[in-house]
Amino acid sequence: MKVLIVESEFLHQDTWVGNAVERLADALSQQNVTVIKSTSFDDGYAILSANEAIDCLMFSYQMEQPDEHLSVRQLIGKLHERQQNVPVFLLGDREKATASLDRDLLELVDEFAWILEDTADFIAGRAVAAMTRYRQQLLPPLFNALMKYSDIHEYSWAAPGHQGGVGFTKTPAGRFYHDYYGENLFRSDMGIERTTLGSLLDHTGAFGESEKNAARVFGADRSWSVVVGTSGSNRTIMQACMTDNDVVVLDRNCHKSIEQGLILTGAKPVYMVPSRNRYGIIGPIYPQEMQPETLQKKISASPLTKTKVGQKPSYSVVTNCTYDGVCYNAKEAQDLLAKTSDRIHFDEAWYGYARFNPIYCDHYAMRGEPGDHNGPTVFATHSTHKLLNALSQASYIHVREGRGAVNFSRFNQAYMMHATTSPLYAICASNDVAVSMMDGNSGLSLTQEVIDEAVDFRQAIMGMIPNAALRVSASPFGDAARMALGDTAGAIVSFCAAAGCLGSLGGWTLLAGQTAKAAADDGLFPPIFARVNKAGTPVAGLLIVGVLMTIFQFSSMSPNAAKEFGLVSSVSVIFTLVPYLYTCAALLLLGHGHFGKARPLYLLITFVAFVYCIWAVIGSGAKEVMWSFVTLMVITALYALNYNRIHKNPYPLDAPVKQD
């Protein structure tokens, strides 16, 4: 057992009260209690922030300073974030303490020890009794039963063959293995015939109590502890919900265990296709994909299901969150899918923490309370070993019963088919403990800590480079990596950025080749730009344009040349606005005969586009606009000089005068 005693920084050790606290610490030590002493509330807060596990908090309380009330509340609040039921003792002088206590503080304190009246041995005895009660209710059902069973020290007369670890000690390699993991792992690895603990497969005894506790914490009607991972959990649900004559609705971005469930059951799938952006990040399934009309069209179009048009799908599944971390509004998704199916499965293997932080409100399967549920039967599968605190292979199935509920016996047959008759009890116990850790205030505290850390990390990265330096940096991402991870990392990031630029340059080169070919076809560029190979690629134009663009690229390496390159780029951008201005003029010339009654709308659109083009040109800068104008005049002159050659028709004024 461990006690944290926090003394007020205003309490002097040479006072009678200070000496009484010292005598109490000695009395606790004599009862084999570890005593941690802190000489200020700030220091005690730091100890609790470091997740120091304690069985009792004691603090001296004199109320001689105005800040003591606030410090005490903050200290107890920090304790209850992760250790909600730890007994709290107030140590003080009865006359001073009772005069200053308020109702809020009375509710936070479990016992009041008048340090100047009761003996140190008596107060220590009260503390030990309180810590014993705390420890008795601290552990979750299965882990508590497992520890008690281990304390009996029974011999093993059945499998596993290592007989509580003794078998491993008979050879050097086995001894190293035994010593590495420790004796408790092997003593707790036993066969399922131990009736004292109950049965994982029958959901009796401590195993059954553990699953009831999990259902309470996760907001389910029933929970099933799984030791073969969420792959096994998914296959269990599918085996219980469908047959080879059923139509089922699946997220196309599902886990392979969902596909395996199809193979096992023979059910016929139709798929909801998720979105994906240009970066390859997988987004959600859009609502229209979940609409009954869309799904019935897919059923009629698929060769697997076209004979089952009109048949109601028996099951639907959505991966939440997606494998790129995008979360669904599960309430809306459930409402949409409920129009099609009475059994909805949210595969939340990477999302078991969502219930415990308000930031995810309505974005997970087990929302609200089970008693308020009125709708389809909802399943959620959680890999407790992924993002909660459990050993590998630990998983849970959570069920909210509603329309299409599956009979317990039927579901349990599917469960046993994918479970094992030789479960490792350490995995079962870790599942039990993972639930306990998320219960009450600790679930919010643990998830909020991770969210805060992620936000702090982003802010730290954004603030690594001063704004003034960032404004003139030629490689801001490389500079950030260099400051965070060293020169090598900075060089790697800079190289990747350069590679991306070169790839972009290649794309623009290909586009420029087609532009040059089009100009050559119109007679505006030399004919060499129009030459193509057998595949229709303007090879000569690509080579010429590529050489020119490469020269420009290398010219940007010097500061002065870089400015000129920027000027050329800006002029090019301004010239892209010229076709838009011509288009605006063309729209103004079109009359009612083309647009009819819609002409006012087109005039408005034309006006907005025209204003934007003018604004964009003005915003480019005086120098850029001047050179654009000069270039435009040169192009106009060249066009006029080459008009006859291009069009192969004389100007009207050059035509012979017709004689009457």
Which helices and strands appear, and what pairs or packs with what?
Blueprint: E1 2-6, H1 16-30, E2 34-38, H2 41-49, E3 56-60, H3 68-82, E4 88-92, H4 94-100, H5 103-108, E5 111-114, H6 120-138, H7 141-152, H8 172-181, H9 183-187, H10 205-218, E6 222-226, H11 229-241, E7 247-251, H12 256-265, E8 268-272, H13 287-290, H14 292-301, E9 315-319, H15 330-337, E10 343-347, E11 377-382, H16 384-387, E12 395-400, H17 408-418, H18 425-438, H19 441-462, H20 467-472, H21 476-485, H22 487-521, H23 539-555, H24 559-589, H25 592-595, H26 599-618, H27 622-641, H28 643-647
Parallel strand pairs: 1-2, 1-3, 3-4, 4-5, 7-8, 7-9, 9-10, 10-11
Antiparallel strand pairs: 6-12, 11-12
Helix pairs in contact: 1-6, 2-3, 7-10, 7-18, 10-18, 11-12, 11-17, 21-22, 22-23, 24-26, 24-27
Structural class by helix and strand composition: alpha/beta
| Main sheet: strand order | 6-12-11-10-9-7-8
Q: How many domain regions?
A: 4
Largest beta-sheet characterization: 7 strands, mixed
Distance between the termini: 124 Å
Overall geometric form:
extended
Find the CATH topology of the largest domain. Aspartate Aminotransferase, domain 2
If helices are DSSP runs of H or I spanning 4 or more residues, what is the number of helices? 28
CATH architecture term of the largest domain: 3-Layer(aba) Sandwich
Strand segment tally = 12
- Helix percent band: 40-55%
**How much of the residues is beta strand, in percent?**
5-15%
Radius of gyration: 37 Å
CATH H-tier superfamily of the largest domain = Type I PLP-dependent aspartate aminotransferase-like (Major domain)
- CATH class label of the largest domain: Alpha Beta
Q: Ranges with pLDDT <50 over ≥5 residues?
A: none
Mean pLDDT over all positions: 85
Organism: Salmonella enterica
Transmembrane segments: 489-511, 532-555, 567-589, 601-619, 625-643
Protein name: Amino acid permease
Pfam families: OKR_DC_1, OKR_DC_1_N
